[in-house]
Amino acid sequence: MRVAALLLLGACSDGHPDGADSPSPNDGSTVDALGSSCAREVDCPDGLACRVERVDDGDGIPEQVLTRCLPENDVAGATGDACASDGDCRTGLCHLGLCTEVCTADSCPAGFACNDVSALPGGLLGPGPECPAAVFSAARFSACLPESAVIDLALGEAPSGEWTVLDVPSQAVSFTVISETETPDAYVGVWWLLGRDGEELYLLPDTQAELLAQPIRYFPGDRISAMLVPNTPDVAFLRGTYCFRIGSDAGGTVASRARVKMAPGGTAGGGTLALDVHVLNLAGMGCGVDGLYAASAATHPLWQDTLGEMGEIFAQASITLGPVAMHDIVGHPELDVIDYFDGPDDDGVYEELNALFSTGTGAAPDSVDVFLVRHLEGDNGPKNGVSGAIPGPPGVHGLPHAGVAINMEVPCMPSPSLSRVIAHEIGHQLGLFHNIQTETDGSRTHDPIEDTSDGADNLMFGTSDGIDLTPGQVFVLRTSPLVQ
Protein backbone atom coordinates (compact mmCIF):
# COMPACT_ATOMS: atom_id res chain seq x y z
CA MET A 1 0.00 0.00 0.00
CA ARG A 2 1.13 3.50 -0.60
CA VAL A 3 0.50 6.58 1.23
CA ALA A 4 -1.59 9.66 0.67
CA ALA A 5 -0.61 13.26 1.11
CA LEU A 6 -0.07 12.58 4.77
CA LEU A 7 -2.70 10.09 5.62
CA LEU A 8 -5.75 11.22 7.54
CA LEU A 9 -6.06 8.91 10.55
CA GLY A 10 -9.50 10.03 11.65
CA ALA A 11 -11.34 7.48 13.81
CA CYS A 12 -8.45 5.01 13.60
CA SER A 13 -6.11 7.14 15.67
CA ASP A 14 -5.77 6.98 19.45
CA GLY A 15 -4.44 10.51 19.55
CA HIS A 16 -0.75 9.77 18.97
CA PRO A 17 1.01 12.22 16.61
CA ASP A 18 1.20 10.84 13.10
CA GLY A 19 3.57 13.30 11.48
CA ALA A 20 1.01 14.12 8.76
CA ASP A 21 0.22 17.69 7.74
CA SER A 22 -2.25 17.38 4.86
CA PRO A 23 -5.27 15.09 4.40
CA SER A 24 -5.98 12.57 1.69
CA PRO A 25 -9.35 11.84 0.09
CA ASN A 26 -11.81 10.15 2.44
CA ASP A 27 -15.15 11.26 1.11
CA GLY A 28 -16.00 7.95 -0.55
CA SER A 29 -14.89 9.03 -4.01
CA THR A 30 -12.44 6.92 -5.96
CA VAL A 31 -9.43 7.93 -8.00
CA ASP A 32 -8.37 6.41 -11.27
CA ALA A 33 -5.04 8.01 -12.08
CA LEU A 34 -1.72 6.30 -11.45
CA GLY A 35 0.00 8.17 -8.65
CA SER A 36 -3.14 9.78 -7.26
CA SER A 37 -3.47 10.18 -3.49
CA CYS A 38 -5.58 7.59 -1.67
CA ALA A 39 -6.73 6.90 1.87
CA ARG A 40 -7.87 3.27 1.58
CA GLU A 41 -7.44 0.30 -0.68
CA VAL A 42 -10.81 0.68 -2.41
CA ASP A 43 -9.86 4.16 -3.59
CA CYS A 44 -7.62 2.62 -6.26
CA PRO A 45 -8.82 0.80 -9.42
CA ASP A 46 -7.93 -2.77 -10.35
CA GLY A 47 -4.22 -3.33 -10.80
CA LEU A 48 -3.30 -0.51 -8.44
CA ALA A 49 -2.89 -0.62 -4.67
CA CYS A 50 -3.00 2.18 -2.14
CA ARG A 51 0.68 1.94 -1.30
CA VAL A 52 2.68 3.45 1.54
CA GLU A 53 5.63 5.70 0.83
CA ARG A 54 7.80 6.45 3.85
CA VAL A 55 9.75 9.70 3.89
CA ASP A 56 12.69 10.15 6.25
CA ASP A 57 15.66 12.44 6.64
CA GLY A 58 18.21 9.68 6.21
CA ASP A 59 18.14 8.17 9.70
CA GLY A 60 15.93 5.24 8.64
CA ILE A 61 13.02 6.42 10.78
CA PRO A 62 10.10 7.80 8.72
CA GLU A 63 9.08 11.32 9.67
CA GLN A 64 6.29 11.40 7.11
CA VAL A 65 3.93 9.04 5.31
CA LEU A 66 2.33 9.39 1.86
CA THR A 67 -0.17 7.06 0.18
CA ARG A 68 -0.68 6.84 -3.57
CA CYS A 69 -2.30 4.50 -6.07
CA LEU A 70 0.60 2.57 -7.59
CA PRO A 71 0.98 -0.82 -9.28
CA GLU A 72 0.31 -3.71 -6.92
CA ASN A 73 2.94 -6.40 -6.41
CA ASP A 74 2.71 -9.50 -8.56
CA VAL A 75 2.32 -11.78 -5.54
CA ALA A 76 -0.67 -13.44 -3.91
CA GLY A 77 -0.18 -12.14 -0.35
CA ALA A 78 -3.59 -10.82 0.70
CA THR A 79 -4.58 -8.92 3.84
CA GLY A 80 -3.97 -11.19 6.84
CA ASP A 81 -1.49 -13.52 5.11
CA ALA A 82 1.87 -14.12 6.78
CA CYS A 83 4.78 -12.12 5.39
CA ALA A 84 8.42 -11.38 6.07
CA SER A 85 8.69 -8.13 4.10
CA ASP A 86 6.61 -5.67 2.06
CA GLY A 87 7.53 -7.58 -1.09
CA ASP A 88 5.51 -10.59 0.09
CA CYS A 89 2.22 -8.67 -0.05
CA ARG A 90 0.07 -7.66 -3.01
CA THR A 91 -0.37 -4.21 -1.47
CA GLY A 92 3.33 -3.82 -0.72
CA LEU A 93 2.66 -3.49 3.01
CA CYS A 94 3.73 -6.01 5.69
CA HIS A 95 3.15 -5.03 9.31
CA LEU A 96 3.94 -7.20 12.36
CA GLY A 97 4.37 -10.20 10.10
CA LEU A 98 0.99 -9.83 8.35
CA CYS A 99 0.06 -8.44 4.95
CA THR A 100 -2.19 -5.45 5.41
CA GLU A 101 -3.71 -2.48 3.59
CA VAL A 102 -4.21 1.23 4.16
CA CYS A 103 -7.64 2.03 5.59
CA THR A 104 -10.11 4.50 6.96
CA ALA A 105 -12.78 3.62 9.51
CA ASP A 106 -14.99 0.72 8.31
CA SER A 107 -13.01 0.12 5.10
CA CYS A 108 -11.22 -3.08 6.22
CA PRO A 109 -12.31 -6.59 5.12
CA ALA A 110 -14.55 -8.60 7.44
CA GLY A 111 -12.66 -9.75 10.52
CA PHE A 112 -10.20 -6.86 10.35
CA ALA A 113 -10.16 -3.44 12.00
CA CYS A 114 -8.50 -0.15 11.10
CA ASN A 115 -5.53 0.48 13.43
CA ASP A 116 -3.20 3.38 14.03
CA VAL A 117 0.27 1.93 13.35
CA SER A 118 3.86 3.08 13.11
CA ALA A 119 5.49 3.78 9.76
CA LEU A 120 8.60 1.86 10.88
CA PRO A 121 8.94 -0.80 8.15
CA GLY A 122 7.18 -3.90 9.42
CA GLY A 123 6.47 -2.17 12.73
CA LEU A 124 9.91 -3.24 14.00
CA LEU A 125 13.44 -1.96 14.35
CA GLY A 126 16.44 -3.94 15.54
CA PRO A 127 17.65 -5.78 17.47
CA GLY A 128 20.39 -3.20 17.72
CA PRO A 129 22.74 -1.44 20.12
CA GLU A 130 20.42 1.46 20.92
CA CYS A 131 16.85 2.67 21.14
CA PRO A 132 16.88 5.90 19.10
CA ALA A 133 14.73 8.65 20.62
CA ALA A 134 13.45 9.41 17.12
CA VAL A 135 11.43 6.18 17.01
CA PHE A 136 8.90 7.67 19.44
CA SER A 137 8.04 10.44 16.97
CA ALA A 138 8.02 8.30 13.82
CA ALA A 139 5.10 8.96 11.47
CA ARG A 140 1.97 6.87 11.85
CA PHE A 141 -0.82 5.84 9.49
CA SER A 142 -3.85 3.51 9.43
CA ALA A 143 -3.75 -0.14 8.41
CA CYS A 144 -6.02 -3.20 8.67
CA LEU A 145 -5.10 -5.82 11.28
CA PRO A 146 -7.09 -8.77 12.66
CA GLU A 147 -9.92 -7.61 14.88
CA SER A 148 -9.54 -10.49 17.38
CA ALA A 149 -6.28 -12.43 17.30
CA VAL A 150 -2.91 -12.97 18.88
CA ILE A 151 -0.17 -11.87 16.48
CA ASP A 152 2.89 -14.06 17.08
CA LEU A 153 6.04 -12.34 15.88
CA ALA A 154 9.53 -13.88 15.91
CA LEU A 155 12.12 -11.23 16.72
CA GLY A 156 15.11 -13.45 16.01
CA GLU A 157 18.39 -13.97 17.83
CA ALA A 158 20.75 -11.22 18.93
CA PRO A 159 23.66 -10.68 21.30
CA SER A 160 22.66 -10.14 24.93
CA GLY A 161 21.88 -6.51 25.69
CA GLU A 162 20.46 -5.53 22.30
CA TRP A 163 17.44 -3.21 21.91
CA THR A 164 14.28 -3.99 19.92
CA VAL A 165 11.63 -1.48 18.85
CA LEU A 166 8.06 -2.79 18.57
CA ASP A 167 4.93 -1.06 17.31
CA VAL A 168 1.82 -1.67 19.43
CA PRO A 169 -1.27 -0.96 17.28
CA SER A 170 -4.19 1.10 18.55
CA GLN A 171 -6.50 -1.91 19.06
CA ALA A 172 -4.00 -4.07 20.94
CA VAL A 173 -4.96 -5.01 24.49
CA SER A 174 -1.53 -6.32 25.53
CA PHE A 175 1.81 -7.53 24.31
CA THR A 176 4.08 -10.19 25.75
CA VAL A 177 7.84 -10.34 25.23
CA ILE A 178 9.25 -13.88 25.50
CA SER A 179 13.04 -14.19 25.91
CA GLU A 180 14.99 -17.43 25.70
CA THR A 181 18.59 -18.62 25.91
CA GLU A 182 20.15 -22.02 25.28
CA THR A 183 22.73 -21.47 28.04
CA PRO A 184 21.95 -23.84 30.95
CA ASP A 185 21.02 -22.11 34.22
CA ALA A 186 21.42 -18.64 32.68
CA TYR A 187 18.86 -16.01 33.59
CA VAL A 188 17.29 -14.19 30.69
CA GLY A 189 14.69 -11.51 30.17
CA VAL A 190 13.84 -7.90 29.57
CA TRP A 191 16.36 -5.60 31.25
CA TRP A 192 14.77 -2.30 30.29
CA LEU A 193 11.36 -1.30 28.89
CA LEU A 194 10.56 2.14 27.53
CA GLY A 195 6.96 2.96 26.73
CA ARG A 196 5.46 5.47 24.39
CA ASP A 197 7.45 8.72 24.27
CA GLY A 198 10.29 7.03 26.16
CA GLU A 199 8.58 6.57 29.54
CA GLU A 200 10.52 4.09 31.69
CA LEU A 201 8.21 1.22 32.62
CA TYR A 202 10.78 -1.31 33.80
CA LEU A 203 14.47 -1.32 34.70
CA LEU A 204 16.14 -4.46 36.02
CA PRO A 205 16.02 -3.94 39.79
CA ASP A 206 18.85 -4.43 42.28
CA THR A 207 16.64 -4.64 45.38
CA GLN A 208 13.22 -5.83 46.45
CA ALA A 209 12.13 -2.22 46.95
CA GLU A 210 13.13 -1.36 43.39
CA LEU A 211 11.25 -4.40 42.10
CA LEU A 212 8.04 -3.37 43.84
CA ALA A 213 8.36 0.21 42.58
CA GLN A 214 8.40 -0.81 38.91
CA PRO A 215 5.28 0.16 36.92
CA ILE A 216 5.49 -3.32 35.35
CA ARG A 217 6.28 -6.04 37.92
CA TYR A 218 8.36 -8.76 36.34
CA PHE A 219 11.06 -11.36 37.03
CA PRO A 220 13.61 -12.63 34.48
CA GLY A 221 13.86 -16.42 34.56
CA ASP A 222 16.28 -19.24 33.96
CA ARG A 223 16.32 -20.28 30.29
CA ILE A 224 13.07 -18.47 29.44
CA SER A 225 10.83 -15.67 30.73
CA ALA A 226 7.77 -13.69 29.69
CA MET A 227 6.91 -10.05 30.37
CA LEU A 228 3.19 -9.18 30.05
CA VAL A 229 2.36 -5.51 29.34
CA PRO A 230 0.17 -4.29 30.94
CA ASN A 231 -0.08 -6.53 34.02
CA THR A 232 -2.11 -4.06 36.04
CA PRO A 233 -4.94 -1.73 35.05
CA ASP A 234 -3.31 0.96 37.20
CA VAL A 235 -0.58 1.66 34.62
CA ALA A 236 -2.02 3.32 31.51
CA PHE A 237 -1.52 1.14 28.45
CA LEU A 238 -0.67 3.67 25.74
CA ARG A 239 -0.49 2.17 22.28
CA GLY A 240 2.43 3.26 20.13
CA THR A 241 6.15 2.58 19.94
CA TYR A 242 7.91 0.60 22.69
CA CYS A 243 11.60 -0.16 23.15
CA PHE A 244 12.89 -3.08 25.18
CA ARG A 245 16.38 -4.35 25.92
CA ILE A 246 16.81 -8.11 26.34
CA GLY A 247 19.77 -9.74 28.03
CA SER A 248 21.17 -12.71 29.89
CA ASP A 249 23.43 -12.78 32.93
CA ALA A 250 25.58 -15.26 31.01
CA GLY A 251 25.90 -13.09 27.92
CA GLY A 252 25.81 -14.93 24.63
CA THR A 253 22.87 -14.96 22.25
CA VAL A 254 19.25 -14.40 23.22
CA ALA A 255 16.20 -15.33 21.13
CA SER A 256 12.97 -13.42 21.53
CA ARG A 257 9.46 -13.12 20.19
CA ALA A 258 6.49 -10.90 20.83
CA ARG A 259 2.82 -11.83 21.11
CA VAL A 260 0.45 -8.92 20.48
CA LYS A 261 -3.15 -9.53 21.53
CA MET A 262 -5.78 -7.69 19.48
CA ALA A 263 -9.43 -7.13 20.42
CA PRO A 264 -12.29 -4.95 19.10
CA GLY A 265 -11.83 -1.39 20.22
CA GLY A 266 -8.67 -2.34 22.11
CA THR A 267 -10.72 -3.71 25.02
CA ALA A 268 -10.24 -7.30 26.18
CA GLY A 269 -13.38 -9.27 26.88
CA GLY A 270 -13.66 -12.85 28.04
CA GLY A 271 -12.83 -15.89 25.99
CA THR A 272 -11.75 -19.50 26.28
CA LEU A 273 -8.74 -20.96 28.07
CA ALA A 274 -7.39 -24.29 26.85
CA LEU A 275 -5.78 -26.72 29.30
CA ASP A 276 -3.43 -29.64 28.69
CA VAL A 277 -3.57 -31.78 31.83
CA HIS A 278 -0.72 -34.26 32.39
CA VAL A 279 -1.40 -37.08 34.86
CA LEU A 280 1.44 -38.80 36.70
CA ASN A 281 1.03 -42.12 38.52
CA LEU A 282 -1.76 -41.46 41.06
CA ALA A 283 -2.61 -45.12 41.75
CA GLY A 284 -3.69 -45.90 45.31
CA MET A 285 -3.77 -42.33 46.56
CA GLY A 286 -7.29 -42.46 48.02
CA CYS A 287 -9.47 -39.43 48.85
CA GLY A 288 -11.21 -39.83 45.50
CA VAL A 289 -7.99 -39.44 43.49
CA ASP A 290 -7.36 -43.12 42.73
CA GLY A 291 -8.36 -44.16 39.24
CA LEU A 292 -7.69 -40.77 37.60
CA TYR A 293 -5.82 -41.05 34.33
CA ALA A 294 -6.39 -39.71 30.84
CA ALA A 295 -8.92 -42.30 29.68
CA SER A 296 -10.99 -42.14 32.88
CA ALA A 297 -11.04 -38.36 33.29
CA ALA A 298 -14.31 -37.85 31.41
CA THR A 299 -16.21 -39.88 34.01
CA HIS A 300 -14.01 -39.50 37.08
CA PRO A 301 -16.19 -37.92 39.83
CA LEU A 302 -13.48 -35.91 41.57
CA TRP A 303 -12.03 -34.57 38.33
CA GLN A 304 -15.38 -33.65 36.83
CA ASP A 305 -16.41 -31.84 40.02
CA THR A 306 -13.06 -30.03 39.98
CA LEU A 307 -13.50 -28.86 36.38
CA GLY A 308 -17.03 -27.67 37.15
CA GLU A 309 -15.88 -25.63 40.15
CA MET A 310 -12.95 -24.19 38.20
CA GLY A 311 -15.38 -23.16 35.48
CA GLU A 312 -17.39 -21.22 38.05
CA ILE A 313 -14.27 -19.45 39.32
CA PHE A 314 -13.14 -18.30 35.87
CA ALA A 315 -16.70 -17.39 34.87
CA GLN A 316 -16.18 -14.31 37.07
CA ALA A 317 -13.90 -13.09 34.25
CA SER A 318 -16.20 -14.43 31.49
CA ILE A 319 -13.53 -17.04 30.75
CA THR A 320 -14.66 -20.53 29.72
CA LEU A 321 -12.38 -23.53 30.17
CA GLY A 322 -11.84 -25.62 27.10
CA PRO A 323 -10.82 -27.65 25.41
CA VAL A 324 -9.32 -29.72 28.23
CA ALA A 325 -6.97 -32.38 26.82
CA MET A 326 -5.78 -35.18 29.11
CA HIS A 327 -2.39 -36.93 28.84
CA ASP A 328 -0.77 -39.72 30.86
CA ILE A 329 2.93 -39.33 31.69
CA VAL A 330 4.32 -42.86 31.91
CA GLY A 331 7.86 -44.12 32.33
CA HIS A 332 8.90 -41.22 34.58
CA PRO A 333 8.56 -42.47 38.19
CA GLU A 334 11.17 -39.90 39.22
CA LEU A 335 8.60 -37.18 38.50
CA ASP A 336 5.78 -38.60 40.63
CA VAL A 337 7.15 -36.68 43.61
CA ILE A 338 8.58 -33.21 42.99
CA ASP A 339 10.90 -31.38 45.37
CA TYR A 340 10.27 -27.75 44.47
CA PHE A 341 13.41 -26.43 46.23
CA ASP A 342 15.76 -29.06 44.89
CA GLY A 343 18.67 -26.96 43.62
CA PRO A 344 21.84 -28.15 45.40
CA ASP A 345 23.73 -24.92 44.73
CA ASP A 346 21.02 -22.47 45.83
CA ASP A 347 21.00 -20.87 42.38
CA GLY A 348 17.23 -20.53 42.19
CA VAL A 349 16.98 -23.10 39.39
CA TYR A 350 14.48 -25.81 40.27
CA GLU A 351 15.75 -28.85 38.41
CA GLU A 352 12.99 -31.34 39.28
CA LEU A 353 10.24 -28.87 38.49
CA ASN A 354 11.88 -28.00 35.18
CA ALA A 355 12.24 -31.71 34.38
CA LEU A 356 8.50 -32.11 35.00
CA PHE A 357 7.62 -29.19 32.75
CA SER A 358 9.90 -30.56 30.02
CA THR A 359 7.39 -33.40 29.49
CA GLY A 360 4.66 -30.97 28.48
CA THR A 361 3.48 -31.26 24.90
CA GLY A 362 0.47 -29.08 24.38
CA ALA A 363 -2.31 -30.46 22.21
CA ALA A 364 -3.36 -26.85 21.71
CA PRO A 365 -0.65 -24.35 20.72
CA ASP A 366 -2.02 -21.85 23.23
CA SER A 367 -2.84 -23.73 26.42
CA VAL A 368 -1.74 -24.00 30.03
CA ASP A 369 0.08 -27.23 30.94
CA VAL A 370 -1.22 -28.61 34.27
CA PHE A 371 0.74 -31.45 35.92
CA LEU A 372 -0.94 -33.64 38.57
CA VAL A 373 1.74 -35.24 40.80
CA ARG A 374 1.61 -37.48 43.86
CA HIS A 375 3.44 -35.08 46.14
CA LEU A 376 4.97 -31.60 45.91
CA GLU A 377 7.54 -30.65 48.53
CA GLY A 378 8.47 -27.07 49.41
CA ASP A 379 11.21 -25.49 51.48
CA ASN A 380 9.38 -26.05 54.77
CA GLY A 381 6.90 -28.80 53.98
CA PRO A 382 4.36 -29.84 51.34
CA LYS A 383 3.10 -27.30 48.83
CA ASN A 384 -0.40 -27.43 47.40
CA GLY A 385 0.71 -26.21 44.01
CA VAL A 386 3.28 -24.12 42.19
CA SER A 387 3.34 -22.09 39.00
CA GLY A 388 6.48 -22.05 36.90
CA ALA A 389 6.41 -18.26 36.59
CA ILE A 390 4.26 -15.11 36.76
CA PRO A 391 3.32 -15.18 33.96
CA GLY A 392 4.40 -18.41 32.34
CA PRO A 393 5.65 -18.17 28.75
CA PRO A 394 2.46 -18.30 26.65
CA GLY A 395 2.32 -20.69 23.72
CA VAL A 396 5.40 -22.56 25.00
CA HIS A 397 5.47 -26.24 25.99
CA GLY A 398 8.22 -28.47 27.32
CA LEU A 399 10.45 -25.70 28.73
CA PRO A 400 11.13 -24.31 32.22
CA HIS A 401 8.33 -22.22 33.73
CA ALA A 402 5.79 -23.50 31.17
CA GLY A 403 3.13 -24.96 33.42
CA VAL A 404 1.78 -25.51 36.91
CA ALA A 405 2.33 -28.48 39.23
CA ILE A 406 -0.47 -29.65 41.55
CA ASN A 407 -0.07 -31.79 44.67
CA MET A 408 -2.81 -34.44 44.38
CA GLU A 409 -2.74 -34.93 48.14
CA VAL A 410 -4.87 -31.77 48.32
CA PRO A 411 -8.21 -33.69 48.21
CA CYS A 412 -7.16 -35.39 51.46
CA MET A 413 -6.85 -32.03 53.19
CA PRO A 414 -9.73 -30.10 54.80
CA SER A 415 -8.87 -26.96 52.79
CA PRO A 416 -8.36 -25.62 50.17
CA SER A 417 -10.26 -27.43 47.42
CA LEU A 418 -8.48 -28.97 44.46
CA SER A 419 -10.36 -26.66 42.08
CA ARG A 420 -9.24 -23.60 44.01
CA VAL A 421 -5.58 -24.72 44.04
CA ILE A 422 -5.49 -25.32 40.28
CA ALA A 423 -7.32 -22.07 39.51
CA HIS A 424 -4.92 -20.16 41.80
CA GLU A 425 -1.83 -21.54 40.03
CA ILE A 426 -3.35 -20.91 36.59
CA GLY A 427 -3.95 -17.34 37.76
CA HIS A 428 -0.18 -17.04 38.28
CA GLN A 429 0.50 -18.49 34.80
CA LEU A 430 -1.76 -15.84 33.29
CA GLY A 431 -0.07 -12.99 35.17
CA LEU A 432 -1.60 -12.60 38.64
CA PHE A 433 0.56 -12.21 41.75
CA HIS A 434 -0.53 -13.05 45.31
CA ASN A 435 -2.84 -10.33 46.56
CA ILE A 436 -0.66 -10.21 49.69
CA GLN A 437 2.70 -11.93 50.10
CA THR A 438 4.75 -12.53 53.25
CA GLU A 439 8.43 -12.31 52.38
CA THR A 440 11.28 -14.23 54.02
CA ASP A 441 12.16 -11.21 56.18
CA GLY A 442 8.59 -11.05 57.52
CA SER A 443 7.57 -8.03 55.47
CA ARG A 444 4.33 -8.10 53.49
CA THR A 445 4.03 -6.97 49.88
CA HIS A 446 0.90 -6.25 47.88
CA ASP A 447 0.27 -7.15 44.27
CA PRO A 448 0.48 -4.34 41.66
CA ILE A 449 -3.33 -4.09 41.36
CA GLU A 450 -4.87 -1.32 43.42
CA ASP A 451 -8.35 -2.79 43.92
CA THR A 452 -7.23 -6.08 45.50
CA SER A 453 -7.45 -6.16 49.28
CA ASP A 454 -5.42 -8.34 51.64
CA GLY A 455 -8.42 -10.61 52.26
CA ALA A 456 -8.33 -14.40 52.37
CA ASP A 457 -11.50 -14.50 50.25
CA ASN A 458 -9.45 -13.64 47.14
CA LEU A 459 -8.41 -16.36 44.67
CA MET A 460 -4.79 -15.18 44.84
CA PHE A 461 -4.45 -15.32 48.62
CA GLY A 462 -1.65 -17.76 49.38
CA THR A 463 -3.37 -20.22 51.73
CA SER A 464 -7.16 -20.17 51.84
CA ASP A 465 -10.21 -21.40 50.00
CA GLY A 466 -10.99 -17.93 48.63
CA ILE A 467 -12.16 -17.71 45.03
CA ASP A 468 -13.09 -14.04 44.50
CA LEU A 469 -11.62 -11.94 41.70
CA THR A 470 -11.57 -8.14 41.62
CA PRO A 471 -12.18 -6.09 38.44
CA GLY A 472 -8.45 -5.37 38.29
CA GLN A 473 -7.59 -9.06 38.42
CA VAL A 474 -10.20 -9.77 35.75
CA PHE A 475 -8.51 -7.14 33.57
CA VAL A 476 -5.15 -8.91 33.86
CA LEU A 477 -6.57 -12.36 33.14
CA ARG A 478 -8.26 -11.07 30.01
CA THR A 479 -5.06 -9.45 28.71
CA SER A 480 -3.26 -12.81 28.63
CA PRO A 481 -2.69 -14.10 25.09
CA LEU A 482 -3.78 -17.53 26.35
CA VAL A 483 -7.36 -16.27 26.78
CA GLN A 484 -8.81 -16.25 23.27
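Above is the first protein from milestone M3; the second protein from the same milestone is given next.
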Amino acid sequence: MRKIGILLLASMASSCAPVPPNPEVVAREQAQFAQLTEGKIAGAPLSCLPSWRSNDMVVIDDNTIAFRNGPGKVYISHMQGGCLGIDHGRNALVTRTTGPNLCRGDIAQVLDTAARVTIGSCVFGDFVPYIRPRS
Protein backbone atom coordinates (compact mmCIF):
# COMPACT_ATOMS: atom_id res chain seq x y z
CA MET A 1 0.00 0.00 0.00
CA ARG A 2 2.84 2.34 0.84
CA LYS A 3 4.32 1.85 -2.68
CA ILE A 4 1.04 2.96 -4.27
CA GLY A 5 1.04 6.13 -2.16
CA ILE A 6 4.63 6.92 -3.14
CA LEU A 7 3.89 6.28 -6.84
CA LEU A 8 0.79 8.47 -6.64
CA LEU A 9 2.75 11.27 -4.96
CA ALA A 10 5.55 11.00 -7.56
CA SER A 11 3.00 11.08 -10.36
CA MET A 12 1.34 14.20 -8.95
CA ALA A 13 4.68 15.96 -8.49
CA SER A 14 5.78 15.23 -12.04
CA SER A 15 2.47 16.50 -13.45
CA CYS A 16 3.20 19.90 -11.88
CA ALA A 17 6.62 20.14 -13.51
CA PRO A 18 6.80 22.97 -16.04
CA VAL A 19 6.51 21.94 -19.67
CA PRO A 20 9.60 22.96 -21.63
CA PRO A 21 8.83 25.51 -24.35
CA ASN A 22 8.53 24.26 -27.91
CA PRO A 23 11.78 25.29 -29.67
CA GLU A 24 9.93 26.04 -32.92
CA VAL A 25 7.49 28.37 -31.14
CA VAL A 26 10.32 30.12 -29.28
CA ALA A 27 12.22 30.60 -32.55
CA ARG A 28 9.09 32.05 -34.23
CA GLU A 29 8.52 34.48 -31.32
CA GLN A 30 12.16 35.57 -31.35
CA ALA A 31 12.03 36.11 -35.11
CA GLN A 32 8.87 38.21 -34.78
CA PHE A 33 10.49 40.35 -32.05
CA ALA A 34 13.62 40.77 -34.19
CA GLN A 35 11.53 41.73 -37.24
CA LEU A 36 9.58 44.38 -35.28
CA THR A 37 12.72 45.92 -33.76
CA GLU A 38 15.07 45.51 -36.74
CA GLY A 39 17.08 48.67 -37.39
CA LYS A 40 15.61 50.39 -34.35
CA ILE A 41 17.26 51.55 -31.14
CA ALA A 42 15.67 51.06 -27.71
CA GLY A 43 14.85 54.25 -25.86
CA ALA A 44 14.09 54.98 -22.22
CA PRO A 45 11.04 53.11 -20.90
CA LEU A 46 7.79 55.08 -20.74
CA SER A 47 5.03 54.63 -18.18
CA CYS A 48 2.28 55.34 -20.77
CA LEU A 49 1.87 55.05 -24.52
CA PRO A 50 1.55 58.51 -26.10
CA SER A 51 -1.13 57.14 -28.44
CA TRP A 52 -2.31 53.71 -29.48
CA ARG A 53 -4.87 51.81 -31.50
CA SER A 54 -5.83 48.25 -30.70
CA ASN A 55 -5.38 47.17 -34.33
CA ASP A 56 -1.70 48.18 -34.09
CA MET A 57 -1.14 45.68 -31.27
CA VAL A 58 0.97 42.58 -32.00
CA VAL A 59 1.15 39.67 -29.58
CA ILE A 60 4.68 38.29 -29.60
CA ASP A 61 4.23 35.76 -26.80
CA ASP A 62 2.33 35.34 -23.53
CA ASN A 63 4.61 37.91 -21.88
CA THR A 64 5.30 40.43 -24.64
CA ILE A 65 3.02 42.83 -26.53
CA ALA A 66 4.18 45.24 -29.25
CA PHE A 67 2.38 48.37 -30.42
CA ARG A 68 3.36 49.58 -33.90
CA ASN A 69 3.42 53.32 -34.50
CA GLY A 70 4.18 53.66 -38.19
CA PRO A 71 7.18 52.03 -39.86
CA GLY A 72 9.81 53.72 -37.71
CA LYS A 73 8.60 53.13 -34.15
CA VAL A 74 7.33 50.25 -32.03
CA TYR A 75 6.65 50.11 -28.30
CA ILE A 76 7.28 46.85 -26.45
CA SER A 77 5.63 46.02 -23.13
CA HIS A 78 6.50 43.00 -21.03
CA MET A 79 3.41 41.95 -19.14
CA GLN A 80 3.67 41.61 -15.38
CA GLY A 81 2.63 38.07 -14.55
CA GLY A 82 2.25 37.03 -18.17
CA CYS A 83 -1.02 36.73 -20.09
CA LEU A 84 -1.33 33.00 -20.58
CA GLY A 85 -3.23 32.21 -23.72
CA ILE A 86 -3.06 35.56 -25.55
CA ASP A 87 -1.04 34.11 -28.39
CA HIS A 88 -3.74 31.57 -29.25
CA GLY A 89 -5.84 32.51 -32.27
CA ARG A 90 -9.27 32.43 -30.66
CA ASN A 91 -8.40 34.57 -27.63
CA ALA A 92 -8.54 38.35 -27.40
CA LEU A 93 -6.91 40.85 -25.07
CA VAL A 94 -9.35 43.27 -23.47
CA THR A 95 -7.75 46.27 -21.79
CA ARG A 96 -9.03 48.35 -18.90
CA THR A 97 -7.44 51.78 -18.73
CA THR A 98 -7.57 54.30 -15.91
CA GLY A 99 -7.43 57.27 -18.28
CA PRO A 100 -7.18 58.15 -21.96
CA ASN A 101 -3.80 56.39 -22.39
CA LEU A 102 -2.67 52.82 -21.93
CA CYS A 103 -0.26 52.87 -18.98
CA ARG A 104 1.93 50.68 -16.83
CA GLY A 105 -0.29 49.00 -14.26
CA ASP A 106 -3.39 48.90 -16.47
CA ILE A 107 -5.11 45.53 -16.33
CA ALA A 108 -5.73 43.40 -19.40
CA GLN A 109 -8.02 40.39 -19.49
CA VAL A 110 -7.65 37.40 -21.80
CA LEU A 111 -11.03 36.57 -23.29
CA ASP A 112 -11.88 33.24 -24.94
CA THR A 113 -13.94 34.61 -27.82
CA ALA A 114 -15.59 31.26 -28.60
CA ALA A 115 -16.80 30.59 -25.05
CA ARG A 116 -17.10 34.32 -24.20
CA VAL A 117 -15.41 33.88 -20.84
CA THR A 118 -12.40 35.50 -19.22
CA ILE A 119 -9.60 32.95 -18.88
CA GLY A 120 -6.96 35.15 -17.27
CA SER A 121 -5.63 38.60 -16.66
CA CYS A 122 -2.32 40.41 -16.47
CA VAL A 123 -0.86 43.87 -15.99
CA PHE A 124 1.04 46.04 -18.47
CA GLY A 125 4.64 46.86 -17.64
CA ASP A 126 6.67 49.80 -18.98
CA PHE A 127 6.56 50.58 -22.69
CA VAL A 128 10.02 50.58 -24.28
CA PRO A 129 10.13 52.59 -27.53
CA TYR A 130 12.23 51.19 -30.38
CA ILE A 131 12.88 53.97 -32.86
CA ARG A 132 14.55 53.84 -36.26
CA PRO A 133 17.32 56.48 -36.25
CA ARG A 134 17.09 59.18 -38.87
CA SER A 135 19.63 58.93 -41.65
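Note on the second protein: Confidence is low (pLDDT under 50) at residues 5-15.
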